[in-house]
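How a chain folds remains the central question behind the approach discussed here. The record that follows shows the chain in one-letter code together with its fold in token form:
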Amino acid sequence: MKIAILSRDGSLYSCRRLREVAEQRGHEVQILDPLSCYMNIHPASPAVHYCGEPLGPFHAVIPRIGPAITFYGTAVLRQFEMCGSYPLNESLAIIRARDKLRSLQLLAREGIDMPVTGFASSPDDTRDLIEMVGGAPLVVKLVEGTQGIGVVLAETRQAAESVIDAFRGLNAHILVQEFIKEAQGRDVRCLVIGDEVVGAIEREAKEGDFRSNLHRGGKARPVEITPQEREIAVKAAATLGLEVAGVDILRARRGPLVMEVNASPGLEGIETTTGLNIAAMMIDWIEQHAQPGFRLKTGG
């Protein structure tokens, strides 16, 4: 089988592991920088070109597209889909997940519980917005933020108003969320493949921080999840149309709350913490679903 990995940096842990496992299985793997791809958009013969040459057909494409290049990266993935390649995650699903506001609205529509979240545009709404999520302390997030960047804990009303007004002064789109104090800087990352949680870790923020992202210095340990957490994680991934997802859950007094669904979850933290071969599970999924003659399902 011929597999393409879309990534700006093939030396990253996740890309190296996916390539290593796929090649061990006898597959041909090529890592492509999405920004170096360009497209012939033609109804009869769509094609992707790379470094001056048209690319041959790929049975499957693994998107490892960073948030900074979501627009162009998903356009390239969509072109591969048009050419008949099986996408490990479809372009439309990635776009849904990357839009934090849209993803939360879709999850809420399906009855998936989450921290109370507010979104507004006018500075006149600041006080009511703060009350809407239960007052301070609260969390302010950039809609376009990732890996804990653009996430601020405002511990008082005055601090919340200052942070919100500052972000708005930059014309940034923000979400204001209820702060789940009892989570104590911890969350659970569930790695979902298809309709199964294949691995889970608990991430804990470094001392003095509340963000549990491993990129921000957080620590991780293996964790047993409850049947309810397992069900919610699978449902959250399916709601956004993702075959592979990292679903981040907060353990609150009222039950598990979905904080975020990641369409391109990193493998290093969960593999090194649990000892599980997540990369092999992803290649297993591709081997089961990337059939010759595959054509992308249509739909919104």
Q: What stands out?
A: The chain has nine helices and 16 strands. The first strand starts at residue 2 and ends at 6. The CA atoms of residues 145 and 151 lie 7 Å apart. The first helix runs from residue 13 to 24.
